[in-house]
Amino acid sequence: MNAIAVNGINLAYARRGKGTPLMLVHGYPLDHTSWDEVASLLENEFDVITPDLRGFGQSTTVETPYTISDMADDLAGLLDHLGIKKIALAGHSMGGYIALAFAKKYSQRVSGLGLVSSQAAADSPEGKDRRYQTAADVAQKGVGIVAEAMTPKLSTDVRVQAFVRAVIEQQSSPAVIGALKAMAGREDLMAHLSSTTFPVVLIHGNADVLIPIERAKEIKAVLPSAQFVELQGAGHMPMMEFARETAENLKFLMS
Questions:
Q1: What pTM, to 2 d.p., does this model score?
Q2: How many angstroms separate the CA atoms of 94 and 51, rounded?
Q3: Domains (ranges, CATH) in the chain?
């Protein structure tokens, strides 16, 4: 892992392979290692960059509130450091929210967008309330409650469950709390996404209980040019449950 100083934090990242620049953005409350299997399958055709988002993995965070857009700015700073002007981005879950925010703010730097088990709509009022309540609970009881609640929802695959539980338990309370509040406050980007001109691929499992596949179908409805991939039996972790299929479909972003 390497790290750079950007926006008041130290942002850690891994880089492997050669070819078209591709950034794989992990979801909540994980780190870059959730993409390892896919990255190894793509490194012969892509220059694969996998950051740890602020607060997660080996990256540091700040105690003051921040937004999904701020997290997108971190990625822009990383690209500046690496001298990469244009890149394909694929984001998983929260990583998809950040990739969408990046695509809105830095559209000229995006060559393609992948959304894996993600959505473009904002949280409902009830969804926001649940995130704020979870943040309050984490402040009191620690991240163990998130690992306990989320592990069975992320996947039914016991191998994946063991992996995600271990990763979640390693995260810090400030990172989890900050991300929860940032997600709760994110904007609805459905309308903006409908006007995109670069390639978009939507990868979603039909057994995802955290973000139903209907959210991806809603994006496909407003963006007919998007490639929509429904993975039968996949939960919320297609990059681990169906790594090869996920990698193959992300190659669509090379066009």
A1: 0.97
A2: 13
A3: 2-121+187-254 (3.40.50.1820)
